[in-house]
């Protein structure tokens, strides 16, 4: 599974929901929940998903510390694959700091013995995580007043002192400190909506349109829930230290300055505006269901036919362009492209909002004929002796735009079906635009003309 695919994003949503309700697990169900979480973690390969699962396990073990033997048993099993061992070692990073005082001494008595064998494995990453787990627990043990236990054990004391003085160990730990999840993550303090749905995803470079800020939840339901707050102001400086870009938007509303009028905007006020699709949607539509958002959105009567295009990056780029400029429909050779990483990595989730239909190349002629009968004008982007020049041609409101193949253009049989051919004036040497770029230019021109007409109609009224 690749990062930011539909499957990955779906798993993240499930994990976010699991974190929110994990504290509702009753004692008679905790064993089954832990077994399930351990098993899913064992099979999971994507780091961002595993971290949410690890967080759920830690919170359960903190509530039910008598189940720690289930964890110790797995940590001592040498038959596990490296990625699962790493997750088991990662659990120890925070257990020492958040377990209740009544059981923490016994935990420290067990954990160092369990970590020690992994410090001598020949797998470098496992050794690194074991070392990190040792350091976290060493510091937590001293901080919580159990340092005497370490000093009284000459073997543990010797290993701990060596790690704190050996140059390579210090170097490794400094590198680890740069990663928020491995160094500063707190499963208790970071249990808030802002971190679960936004900051955690930022740490693992999940695409922006999967992140949901706490303000979006407040807008849906401003009533605060004590069990899981919207945010933790005391941790804000820690979050922004982990990712400086998260500073944007942390100011209070009263501190915001309007800069959209020329009179109070200087050259130094210009900045890049990063649009967060979820938050923008929440500002304009209180209903979060995709179908209702689509239903309430009025689209231009432009149908873009891309069934002759076979390269995924071009199709994905057209999907983004059509969604941005509000086309009513994008026609593609097969809807299976929406599941391909080559498509989704470029489309950045625009396929979730852009209406698409499947028409294979062999049925394009039939599709064009049907649309003509519905009152659409069939336009083709092609250079012919009778082509109208883009910028001079006035698009009809109901328009079908047919795009040709990447190299061959529009086939002769389809060329005969067009009501008009349009060409983009070109002034360079190569005189050959990429089909996605050509389509985007044409879609923009259509949208611009529709806006002008709407504005003219408003002015006349």
Automatic annotation (TrEMBL):
Keywords tagged on the record: Acetylation, Methyltransferase, RNA-binding, S-adenosyl-L-methionine, Transferase
Enzyme Commission code(s) on record: 2.1.1.34
Domain of life of the organism encoding this protein: Eukaryota
One GO-annotated biological process of the protein: tRNA methylation
Keyword field contains S-adenosyl-L-methionine: yes
KW S-adenosyl-L-methionine (keyword) present: yes
Catalytic activity: guanosine(18) in tRNA + S-adenosyl-L-methionine = 2'-O-methylguanosine(18) in tRNA + S-adenosyl-L-homocysteine + H(+)
Enzyme class: transferase
GO MF, one annotated term: tRNA (guanine(18)-2'-O)-methyltransferase activity
SUPFAM superfamilies, alphabetized: alpha/beta knot
Alphabetical list of Pfam families matching this protein: SpoU_methylase
Entry's transmembrane regions: none
Domain tRNA/rRNA methyltransferase SpoU type, chain residue ranges per copy: 302-444
Function: S-adenosyl-L-methionine-dependent 2'-O-ribose methyltransferase that catalyzes the formation of 2'-O-methylguanosine at position 18 (Gm18) in a subset of tRNA. Selectively mediates Gm18 methylation of tRNAGln-TTG/CTG and tRNASer-TGA/GCT. Gm18 modification can enhance the stability of modified tRNAs.
Protein name: tRNA (guanosine(18)-2'-O)-methyltransferase TARBP1
Organism of this sequence: Rhizopus azygosporus (Rhizopus microsporus var. azygosporus)
